[in-house]
Automatic annotation (TrEMBL):
Binding partners and assembly: Homodimer.
Protein family per UniProt: Belongs to the diaminopimelate epimerase family.
Enzyme class: isomerase
Could be important to modulate the pK values of the two catalytic cysteine residues (site feature) positions: H168, E217
Residues at the catalytic site: C75, C226
Protein name as catalogued: Diaminopimelate epimerase
Gene3D superfamilies: Diaminopimelate Epimerase, Chain A, domain 1
EC number(s) on file: 5.1.1.7
Pathway named in the protein's UniProt entry: Amino-acid biosynthesis; L-lysine biosynthesis via DAP pathway; DL-2,6-diaminopimelate from LL-2,6-diaminopimelate: step 1/1
HAMAP family cross-referenced by the UniProt entry: DAP_epimerase
UniProt-annotated binding residues for substrate: N13, Q46, N66, G76, N77, N166, N199, E217, R218, G227, T228
Source organism of this protein record: Herbaspirillum chlorophenolicum
Role noted for this protein: Catalyzes the stereoinversion of LL-2,6-diaminopimelate (L,L-DAP) to meso-diaminopimelate (meso-DAP), a precursor of L-lysine and an essential component of the bacterial peptidoglycan.
Gene name tied to this protein: dapF
């Protein structure tokens, strides 16, 4: 079957975006995985699907599939690409839209300077809701944050657990470039204490308004940027008393600006979204 797509990225986190309003999109996990394959397919960290909204007061529905073919709850960089896509395609004339996702409603807004700001909703901080199995672990408190000891290979990593609709394990490291992201990332992603796996964030504190961040993403491996990962990292850093809002998050793919006013408040993420090319893939049935 032939499927039209737009290749996009948000700070180097790259996407294949599909319009499921004007074409029928019902694919199996193996087909999603093939689209994401960087040699046998188009290549992407995630696939984003634009659908008609189901609920009232919502403009669109947004579904997200990781490169491993699994559907997931949220994608921050993807939300920025989403609003650029529906605007460029004339699917809306609004600059601020309400988008229904598997984990709730987010509100991306196209700014005058072309960047996009997204209300990502409030973080979820209860371990069981991340979900994270903290049974029999001795946590420690830092500021308002709870840190958990996670055995990874031959060491213990002290992590914050935060959900932005999708699960994140955030640790502070002294130097992101020296951090064992590719070695520890998959071990954290598949750690048995994360029943739905997890995105593993490695954050270096530069100063109270600047961090470096690398994320080994669930279902995609290390990406050049992770929007929800940047949100989760800043929430953890503010709760630990290490950061003050807003925070510039330097990733390998670019800078994301994250603002958060504290528990129960939404995390606001601002960053770029770029359309790279249009294409059509001939997908085997
Ligand atoms: N790998 C993530 C989904 C994509 C998130 C990321 N690309 C972002 O920008 O938030 C997960 O499995 O939860």
């Amino acid at each position: 079957m032939k499927i039209k797509f737009t290749k996009m990225h948000g700070a180097g986190n790259d996407f294949v975006v599909l319009d499921a309003i004007n074409q029928a999109i019902f694919l199996r996990p193996d087909q999603w995985k093939l689209i994401a394959d960087r040699r046998f397919g188009v290549g992407a960290d995630q696939m984003l699907v634009v659908e008609k909204a189901h609920g009232d007061g919502v403009d669109f529905r947004y579904r997200i599939y990781n490169a491993d073919g699994g559907e997931v709850e949220q994608c921050g960089n993807g939300a920025r690409a989403f609003v650029k896509f529906v605007t460029d395609k004339g699917l809306t004339d609004k600059r601020a839209i309400r988008v229904e996702t598997m984990s709730g409603i987010i509100e991306p807004r196209l700014e005058e300077d072309g960047r996009i700001t997204v209300d990502m909703g409030a973080p979820i901080l209860t371990p069981a809701e991340v979900p994270f199995d903290s049974a029999s672990l001795e946590s420690r408190t830092e500021g308002q944050d709870t840190l958990w000891p996670l055995d990874v290979a031959d060491k213990t990593n002290w992590i914050s657990v935060v959900s932005m609709g999708n699960p994140h394990a955030v640790q502070v490291v002294t130097d992101t470039e020296a951090a064992p992201v590719l070695q520890d990332g998959p071990l954290i992603e598949h750690h048995p204490r994360f029943p739905r796996r997890v995105n593993a964030g490695f954050m270096q504190i530069v100063d109270r308004h600047h961090v470096n961040l690398r994320v080994y993403e669930r279902g995609a491996g290390e990406t050049l940027a992770c929007g929800t990962g940047a949100c989760a990292a800043v929430v953890a850093g503010i709760r630990r008393g290490l950061l003050d809002s807003p925070v510039a998050v330097q990733t390998h793919g670019g800078v994301l600006s994250i603002a958060w006013q504290g528990a129960g408040q939404p995390v606001m993420m601002t960053g770029p979204a770029v359309s790279v090319f249009e294409g059509e893939i001939d997908l085997p049935d």
